Amino acid sequence: MPSDSVAFDRAVDYYDDTRGFPSGEEKHIGALFARVGGLTSASRVFEVGIGTGRIALPLAPHVGQIVGVDLARPMLERLRAKQTTEPVRVIIGDATALPLYSGKFDAAVAVHIFHLIPRWRDALREVARMLRPGGMLLSGWNDKARRLGNYDDVLWQAWDDTVGNRHDHHPGVHPDQFETFLADSGWQPVNEMLEHYYTITRTPQEFLLRLEQRIWSSMWTMPDEAVERGLAAVRDAMQRHQIDPHKVVEYSACFKVQAFLPPK
Ligand SMILES: C[S@@+](CC[C@H](N)C(=O)[O-])C[C@H]1O[C@@H](n2cnc3c(N)ncnc32)[C@H](O)[C@@H]1O
Questions:
Q1: pLDDT tens across 126-173, in order?
Q2: Is the CB of 55 inside a 6 Å radius of any atom of ligand 1?
Q3: Could you tell me if residue 1 is inside a domain?
Q4: Does 4 map to a domain?
Q5: Distance, CA 51 to ligand 1 centroid (Å)?
Q6: Is residue 254 part of a domain?
Q7: CB–CB of 138/191 below 8 Å?
Q8: Containing domain of residue 191, as a range?
Q9: CA dist., res. 226 & res. 92, Å (int)
Q10: Domain for residue 152, yes or no?
Q11: Burial 98-125 (b: 16+ CB within 10 A, else e)
């Protein structure tokens, strides 16, 4: 049965350039997951929606093995092309029906995935099935509210006011709920939530280009006419707020990781 989730085949050529952490930050993110999950070189880890290995490859040096599942073959091929000695194995599959035996993993990792899956509750049940007793889900996400000094909030607002909130286009968990949906679904937060701040450097022109290229999955199903209206509103907001398109702006981003035990 074809999946009803949003696969990222079309994003493979720009995913790492537009979603990757600034160079050097990825090792802090890998270490963050290991710390939150108490992972060791003996740990067996599963990642749902592993993509190009943005999380798995820097996490791999801290653990024994990572097995990752993804719907998009091109994303997995990109991971394999980047992989050197990291103990990461990938499988094509759907998070809602995982092609793996139950109870084999000490931890599962999930980052920016459940908003793409209409039947995300089934995917959560499958993640729980992957875990051995006492195994934890390590959920990671970018906390947009903690972004500081970022001009693109103004520009996104112009977009949302014109074509509707971009997050409403996702078929699964609303991204505003990333911090709460697991606890709301009966998963029990354990250990301390940890966060890592890093600096992103970008010009408003680069942001506009990304919009024009429709790099975000929320834009993939929008009619061209709506995208054009949104773009016009963003260009207009740049002028109204006298945002210099070529000024390099530094802003702070925050990545969080929280561990959860499955519902009893
Ligand atoms: C936004 S990317 C995140 C990738 C990785 N977790 C990261 O943080 O870089 C989402 C990934 O989930 C995959 N995906 C979406 N729905 C899926 C499903 N039902 N089962 C498995 N993978 C899925 C997409 O193909 C894509 O590679």
A1: 999 999 999 999 999 998 765 655 677 889 899 999 999 888 889 999
A2: yes
A3: no
A4: no
A5: 5
A6: yes
A7: no
A8: 9-261
A9: 33
A10: yes
A11: beeeeeebbbbbbbbbbbbbbbbeebbe
**Ligand 1 pocket test: which of 3, 8, 141 has the largest number of ligand atoms within 8 Å of its C-beta?**
8
Lookup: tokens for 15: 């995913």
**Total of domains in the chain:** 1
94: left (phi over 0), alpha (psi -120 to 50) or beta: beta
Strands across the sheet containing 65-70: 88-92, 65-70, 44-48, 105-111, 131-142, 249-261, 188-202
The verdict on the CB of residue 126 being under 6 Å from ligand 1 is no
Query: Is any ligand 1 atom within 6 A of the Cβ of residue 109?
Result: no
Which CATH number do you get for residue 172? 3.40.50.150
| Three-class SS state of 87 | coil
The length of the chain in residues reads: 264
Global pTM?
A: 0.95
**What tokens appear for 110 in the block?**
């999930």
For the chain, the farthest-separated pair of C-alpha atoms sits apart, in whole angstroms, at 57
